Amino acid sequence: MFGMLDYRARKLFVLLGFPIYLFFFVLQWFCVLIPIGVLSDYSWHPLLKVLAAVVFLQILWAFLALIGKGVDKFFSSAFFWVVDVEPSLAETKEEAAYYVQYPRFLLNKKFALTPLEWTNEDTLHYAKFYSWQVKAFVDIKSKINEAIEQRRVQFQECPDMYDYDQKYYVQDGLVLDWSGRDAFLMILFSKDCLALVFFIYAFVYWPK
Predict the structure, then answer these.
(1) CA-CA distance, 196 to 201, in Å (whole number)?
(2) What are the CA-CA distances from residue 72 to residues 26, 64, 160 (Å)?
(3) Quick check: 89 and 6 in contact, CB under 8 A?
């Protein structure tokens, strides 16, 4: 075991974990092909095939998520067995370990406990954590700034409102106000909808 500052350990954690992430990302989309291969020989109605393929894919993705969770837990345990993370950006060793695994942790904590110290640089950094669907169709920086302003008002009225266990900051953080249009566009371009479009093309249009 050797010591390493939290921000350096975070970079090493991402570097070592990237091949695992890439493998599961590719495997996730490879799973889309499995229902097509299995159901293509059945003489069912095309729409029934699409429905069956969607259910089949959700089962595959759920199974893959369980495997991924186990791999992630094993990888994290092995990493922290080898690397003794020392606080630099974080205040304690426990916080440093959280930060290595959950990069939003420190900003979540800042949002909850010291929102008056939130800067525009924090907003830009936090915006990077959102998916491409969000960043493509939503003014995410404005949404974050709105959440910060609301939190500042709450903080001035009741400073201890979010004085909970550390794990709260990891799991929640900023709660953004999504409009119906924002939610619709994010769902429309989600992986589930993209897979559905692929199934419709494969079973309805491709056979023709």
Answers:
(1) 9
(2) 16, 12, 34
(3) yes
**Each residue of 127-137: pLDDT tens digit?**
988 888 788 88
DSSP 166-189: HHHHHH--------HHHHHHHHHT
pLDDT digits (tens, 9 = 90+) for 53-82: 999 999 999 999 999 999 999 999 999 999
Model-wide pTM > 0.70? yes
Contact 99, 87 (CB under 8 A): no
- Alpha-carbon torsion angle 35, 41, 46, 52, nearest 10: -30
Strands 2-5 and 83-86: parallel
* Closest by CA position to 58, among listed 196, 152, 208: 196
What whole-number distance in Å separates Cα of residue 71 and Cα of residue 64? 10
